[in-house]
Amino acid sequence: MLIVKNLVAGIEGKEILHGVDLAIKPGEIHVVMGPNGSGKTSLVMSLMGHPGYKVKIQNSKFKIGANDMFTLLPEERARAGLFVSFQNPVEITGVSFLAFLRTASKSLRPDEKIPLSTFKEKVLDALGIVGLDESFMHRSVNEGFSGGERKRAEVAQMLLLRPKFAILDEIDSGLDVDSLKLVAGAIEHVAEEQKTGILLITHYQRILHFLKPNKVHMLIDGKTKKTGGMKLVRLIEKEGYAAV
Amino acid sequence: MQQFDPSEYKFGFFDSIKPVYSTPKGINEKIVRVISGIKQEPEWMLQKRLLALKLFFSKQMPSWGGDLSRINFDDIYYYVRPTDKKGRSWDEVPAEIKTTFDKIGIPEAERKFLAGVGAQYDSEVIYHSISKMLAKKGVIFVDTDTAVKKYPELLQRNFGTVIPAADNKFAALNTAVWSGGSFVYVPKGVRVDLPLQAYFRINARNMGQFERTLIIADEGSYVHYVEGCTAPIFTTDSLHAAVVEIIVKKGARVRYTTIQNWSKNVYNLVTKRMFVEEEGIGEWIDGNLGSQLTMKYPSVYLKGRKAKGEVLSLAFAGSGQHQDAGGKAIHMAQETSSAITSKSISKDGGRTSYRGLLKIHKGAKNSKSTVRCDALILDERSRSDTYPTMLIDEERVTIGHEASVSKIGEEQLFYFQSRGIPQTQAEVMIVNGFVEPIVKELPMEYAVELNRLIQLEMTGSVG
């Protein structure tokens, strides 16, 4: 279970999140929607532990299972089962996608011994699911990838690293319809097969045509205002965020 | 990249000469005569040495580059027989060096040798098999002392023609007191498929402070020469002033790879130059990790039409170190092309400088050159500078110059962390990624050791 209670956080002394509440069970897909400036990226960054974002921990709570996540470094949060796909993933020159994932995989699961050849097959499979070819395995992480390729590569990383909970920040932006279908399919797959709990953060309803969320939350002015289902999504589609 | 074959790794010289003498500290005509005498050299070489000595005395110290003011020429041994160097005992080798051998996985048999202690590395059998193979092709690969006696004509005709003693104060010093180094001659059309490895690690004769190397690749031939090693070379001698001269004849190709990791008391002042004739290719791959101060700018003189030159320079400066490195390309003929790539890393107050020269002579039409220097600075105390010089006397040329200075970004580190990889490990991966364009050009075993060494410099351990 992933639980966020009364999350208050900000950047550079400015409070952006004024109280976010979430409770996600394994295998559930939750969606957070909100207009620009509502605090979507701040939510992602403060949950993963970005050093630029400060959380008021005396008020806020963030747990995955028994782990008190706010006491952990970002890499420890990852080891506790948290994964984030970034809106703008950075380039890492000279570090191949394969080497990066191999190191990540070893860091996350030091006891798991997978021969390199088997690992390569898994990377290849993960890339294939999101429609990327073998060449991406040997390219530097995100270097020269198009916007859509970066998003798909993030999803491939999620498939491979098998987190307990994944927060996907605008994973749908910059994707054409075909890629969107692949990505949505991959998300449903990990939720069903690996029981990964998903927090999908998005600006648009588009991706929701291709997957079925368990819950939809509205993030308005740094607060989770309303929680509902597809009905809520359709309301916003019709009347805009002003309706909530 | 060729596959790593462990047996190749041990190829090297065998030294059967029993040394008899070492000179007292300091330098003068008498000492130079003694050195030449010990080696039973022909008169022409003695005369070259004596002339060079005069030039050494008359030349000024370079006023640029790093701080050379603490070099005391009177406090240096200019000739020490190899076995005298081994008079040290294993116990005297600093613990830090021993641990490093452990951590980067230097074979047991080589450790004592590297530390300047202990017995000759047993490479006789391997040496004989490789020398037989080379001899069949007419390739000469001997130490330069031997070459002076065995191949006097080749030596007399070429020695000092690429880098005359008058070139600079340290080239003059080297010419006056040189010992060891390699002489390579590759006949017309011959390709040497194995890299020739002049292992410091294997033979003390090459481990001189003032070694002298001369390589001649005759028309259409190919050779890759590798020297140095990633393990720290422990020496109490504080000055290393080598000279490497290379002649690349028409259509030939020579690649010269160096990785050096001198102990941190050493001034590493080396002159390296290649003459490249028509359609020839000359390549330097030069990695500098150790030393107190390195001043080294491998150069390519593109003398014939369509000659190509490439310099890849890698420098890592930690605490108390200054790596002043780079490359030079001199275009003297039409349609010549050059590429200089420099990657430097500074850390813990270390300093790296890129110093380069690109010169295009009038008439060298349609020549091309690209210079790229990237510096990575790992903390606030460290420093990096760029001193590029361009002297272009011809209009119809294409020149590209790019320089970058970067720090490891917070966003990059966070990206690694979000995947479970801690900061220190992330930094190592980023640094290894930064140097990858150069490391991928190294022979496999060097590449592996270099990556480990970077990890060691970054974290103090190899995990």
Task: Tell me what the structure shows.
The complex is a heterodimer of chains A (244) and B (463). Chain A is an alpha/beta fold and 244 residues long. Chain A has helices at residues 40-48, 74-79, 97-108, 116-129, 135-138, 147-161, 177-193, 230-239; strands at 2-11, 14-24, 29-33, 53-55, 61-64, 67-68, 82-85, 92-96, 140-141, 165-169, 197-202, 215-220, 223-228. Chain A has one domain (2-243): P-loop containing nucleotide triphosphate hydrolases (Rossmann fold). In chain A, strands 7-10-11-3-12-13 form a six-stranded mixed beta sheet, with helices on both faces. In chain A, strands 1, 2, 4, 5 and 6 form a five-stranded antiparallel beta sheet that branches. A two-stranded antiparallel sheet of chain A has the order 8-9. Chain A is globular. The model of chain A has no long low-confidence stretch (mean pLDDT 94). Chain B has twelve helices and 19 strands. Chain B has helices at 29-38, 43-58, 82-85, 95-104, 108-114, 124-137, 144-150, 152-158, 169-177, 410-418, 423-439, 444-459; strands spanning 140-143, 182-186, 196-198, 212-217, 222-228, 239-240, 243-248, 253-260, 267-276, 281-288, 293-296, 299-302, 308-317, 322-331, 337-346, 351-360, 367-377, 383-392, 397-407. The radius of gyration of chain B is 21 Å and the shape is globular. The two termini of chain B are 25 Å apart. The relative contact order of chain B is 0.10. The chains are: A alpha/beta (244), B alpha/beta (463). Chain A binds chain B through residues 48-52, 73-75, 78-79, 83-84, 86, 89-90, 92-95, 99-101, 103-104, 107-108, 140, 157, 161, and chain B through 409-412, 414-423, 425, 429-430, 432-437.
